[in-house]
From TrEMBL:
SUPFAM superfamilies: Peptide deformylase (SSF56420). Belongs to the polypeptide deformylase family. NCBIfam families: PRK00150.1-3. Fe cation binds at residues 120, 162, 166. The active site is at 163. It comes from Spongisporangium articulatum. The gene is def. This is Peptide deformylase. The keyword Protein biosynthesis applies. Its cofactor is Fe(2+).
Length: 207
């Protein structure tokens, strides 16, 4: 057990909800997270993962522990994919059931990439196009330490890559086509198409 991390998580769980998500510029987002190896009591780990999941509805589709200031290799993902059918088809975005990612590792399957706009709870108010692997193998464990492997495609693969990037100190901005960078308001006005083709043509970036 790690007494300092235990205290930190207890304070986080006692804080008002919804949490204020750590924003870009905070050092915790740029440091590789520590591999989870029993630093927290089992019941506290379970409470943390449940609270991270509870933070998602209406806010995002994934959350990594560093985004709430906890420097451990933990994340959760869940995506109800409540988007128009045209967008769901273009982005290959089926509903993604809840997953706990403890010490996750993502490995590309094949060499195909897809480019889409992406945002982040830790980069408030901005969005940009990111090329990500189209298909990946996810290896992780759940709160009980049971390992699992899944092959993910399309948007679920993107979510898994985004969250595991957080655990390596990487933000989507590091991988983005910077000419595509937009405020979320401008994106909603001009570029909210199923694919980034129109914005690529107008703003001058490759996809």
């Amino acid at each position: 057990m790690d007494a300092e991390l235990t205290r930190q998580v207890q304070e986080l769980l006692a804080a008002p909800r919804p949490w204020t998500v750590t924003q870009v510029g905070e050092p915790v987002l740029r440091r590789p997270a520590a591999r989870y190896d029993g630093q927290l009591p089992d019941d506290l780990l379970a409470e943390l993962l449940d609270a991270m999941r509870a933070h998602l509805p209406g806010v995002g589709v994934g959350l990594a522990a560093p985004q709430v200031g906890v420097p451990l290799a933990l994340a959760v993902i869940e995506d109800p994919a409540e988007v128009p059918e045209e967008i769901a088809l273009a982005r290959e975005r089926p509903p993604q059931p809840f997953l706990e990612l403890v010490n996750p590792v993502v490995t590309a399957v094949g060499d195909e990439r897809r480019s889409f706009y992406e945002g982040c709870l830790s980069v408030d108010g901005l969005t940009a196009v990111v090329a990500r692997w189209h298909r990946v193998q996810l290896a992780a464990a759940d709160r009980s330490g049971r390992g699992y492997e899944l092959e993910l495609t399309g948007w679920p693969a993107r979510i898994a890559q985004h969250e595991t990037d957080h655990l390596n100190g990487t933000l989507y901005l590091d991988r983005a086509e910077l000419r595509s960078l937009s405020t979320t308001a401008v994106y909603a006005t001009h570029w909210a198409a199923p694919t980034p083709g129109p914005s690529a043509a107008e703003l001058g970036f490759p996809i």
